[in-house]
């Protein structure tokens, strides 16, 4: 992409309305723009990041055996009345009346709709287990939308729903999602720590939140220091093997959100030097709630003995849009964002230090063409901005590698490569630069 033809409305000054660094940087880097309170337009570069996050989340869901569907954003109120949550949800639910005076709502989550959908699609216990997920916009009329897309009113969520014949099988489905979350967040360049959590309005008795430690986070957590750093299973993991040993350590009192925190047990069982009390950002939340929705919505199935039994379910959410902010909270410096390779909007930022100069233009066009041909996604700053402005913009938007070409270097057959994360620079020939960057990304 040539910057001269792109839409990247960056901002030099810090926007006053942004309280935390990710919100500031997303606005400054031209990723998002507020449309109304808690509702955002995703500008081209932000949208690219969002799509990349979504794709990694999707890939790991599928790897763990979940099947993708797409449910609507607007739902009828009927099912919610049946489950009893139409009243419970209160003002967070955006209620809508259609032209026929039917009560509708913009879905804040999908337990009811998926339970009803699944009910109409299965015959017997032989159709179990199944896990269905979708990645869809949600609306919650948050009392205090803030921190940009981190606590928006409209936000993108991946939500999966498991269906099993017995609670024991349901527990296995829960474990699969647990492990797939460990892998998902690692691929996004994050350490998201599982914490035993409260089940809140979803209900049920088994739940974990996945938390990224950050002072700006809205959650409060307590955990054993040893649980902050951990190994994550690689892609050869067999999801049908017993996953209990992998996840067994993340239970209360060793890792818990404040609602599940038991101060006495924590003090008794964890040495003072190992106690960590910190703030964090919730990027995922998983629940096992048994038959809480299948019972009121009559989702039953015939077991092998011919009895009708209520299906055992769980639900598994990831804040896809919130992750864009969470990644920035975890990875930035004074100059701007530092994208992990896996979600960076482009792989390389190519800077032409003297646009309009024929030799430099030709050399840059050649670098651009060769990198693109090799499958490296390049943002080419071909504008006639000053060099200084180009450097700060590239640092601000945080692409992992910068490739800098100017007339003086090119006269010696030299260009510069800069790694955004370490700031290290290297002078190489244009051909070597192409090869090196190709190896980084292809
Ligand atoms: P929170 O405690 O932050 O309000 P929640 O418990 O209401 O979250 P869930 O209902 O479990 O959230 O939703 C699943 C995921 O969706 C959360 O883990 C979070 O990452 C994301 N999420 C929830 N509310 C918002 C929001 N208002 N804006 C952006 N992402 C959100
Ligand atoms: Mg909430």
Walk me through what this model shows.
The strands form six sheets. Strands 3, 7, 8, 9, 10, 11, 12, 13 and 16 form a nine-stranded mixed beta sheet that branches. A five-stranded mixed beta sheet has the order 20-19-21-22-23, sandwiched between helices. It has a three-stranded antiparallel beta sheet with strand order 4-6-5. It has 442 residues and is an alpha+beta fold. It is elongated. Helices cover 30% and strands 27% of the residues. Bound molecules: adenosine-5'-triphosphate (ATP) and magnesium ion (MG). Adenosine-5'-triphosphate binds next to strand 8, strand 13, strand 16 and helix 9.
Distance between the termini: 18 Å
Major sheet characteristics: 9 strands, mixed
Supply the CATH architecture of the largest domain: 2-Layer Sandwich
User: Low-confidence parts, pLDDT < 50 over ≥5 residues?
Assistant: none
Class by alpha and beta content: alpha+beta
Count the beta strands.
Answer: 23
Question: For the CA atoms, what is the radius of gyration?
Answer: 25 Å
Q: What percentage of amino acids are in beta strands?
A: 25-35%
Q: Work out the helicity level.
A: 25-40%
List the helices and strands and how they pair.
Blueprint: H1 21-28, E1 32-36, E2 39-42, H2 44-63, E3 67-68, E4 74-76, H3 78-83, H4 85-88, E5 94-97, E6 103-106, H5 111-119, E7 130-139, E8 154-164, H6 167-187, E9 193-196, E10 206-213, E11 219-224, H7 244-247, E12 255-257, H8 263-269, E13 275-290, E14 300-302, E15 308-310, E16 312-319, H9 320-330, E17 332-333, E18 336-337, E19 348-352, H10 358-373, E20 378-381, H11 387-397, E21 401-405, H12 407-411, E22 415-419, E23 425-428, H13 430-441
Parallel strand pairs: 3-7, 19-20, 19-21
Antiparallel strand pairs: 1-2, 4-6, 5-6, 7-8, 8-16, 9-10, 10-13, 11-12, 11-13, 13-16, 14-15, 17-18, 21-22, 22-23
Helix pairs in contact: 1-9, 2-6, 2-9, 10-13
